[in-house]
Amino acid sequence: MFNNTDKRYNQFSAHLKNKFGVKVYKITLDAGFSCPNRDGTISTGGCIFCDEGGSFSQAHSNLLPVEKQVEEGIKTLSGRFKAQKFMSYFQAFSNTYKPVKELEKIYNSALNYPDIIGLSIGTRPDCIDDEKIKLISSYKDDYYTWIEYGLQSIHDKTLKKINRGHNFECFLKAYEKTKEAGINVCVHVIFGLWETHDEIMQTAKKLANLNVDGVKIHMLCALENTKLAQIYKEGGIDFMSEDEYVTTVCNFLEYLPQTTTIHRLAGNGLSNELIAPKWLGKKFDCLNKIDREFINRNSYQGSKFIYKK
Ligand code: SF4
Asked: What are the chain's domains?
């Protein structure tokens, strides 16, 4: 139903294949950034779920120069998945958290390869300003350019509880500036943050109304050496079951417009550090269940989307 696939949602990988005509993969990069929510600028604790890799990052290679990480990524992904084109994805920690001159050097070092067609930069909404947006926007004529903002929820009480260190208003301001500059925006959300089903759907409806270009959904999970792991061990949280998660994902996607690309619905490569919920270690089982749930409902992304002025 989307991108000439049988998916009932607008999967980002299929969107890329449709747009560029070949398989496109993201190369996850760790350029040695930090985060103001961990280095003491906002707090030293960080978000309660953040592990030492920096927010579910699969990029753990900051000992290697960025150029080397890109080269290795191209080699690995073209060998394993027959990928032909690539996006450089700055994933670990807050990838706009340096002066603009340094950012320019770092981003440039990841783009100077003929098969790199895109740039994606993960960051916090309080780590962006006009100058940085101008720099990132300067890539957009030559590269498919995205900023990925960690938001997690539109509810300030939740952001406080998970120690995000910014509120929803801060996200909105960053979002508006980024869209005005013509940069694509993907928003990260997390399910299971002590919120009711209705509260999670309010996040879906708000993002739908903002007409966001992309969404990445995570299930909250406790990883080794995180505050959340401690909270879990002390009995302070019950994680969603897989069935509950699947139902919530489908309900959420039904509210989003069909144009919103879905960058992720289940975690990747978390099994070594994953404490709970254990079902999250089987990513493909979860994705298959989401497909089946949509078929059983005879539904799809956008089936409940209503644009409100
Ligand atoms: S903003 Fe990202 S890197 Fe920073 S503490 Fe939160 S999850 Fe970790």
From this structure: 12-297 (3.20.20.70)
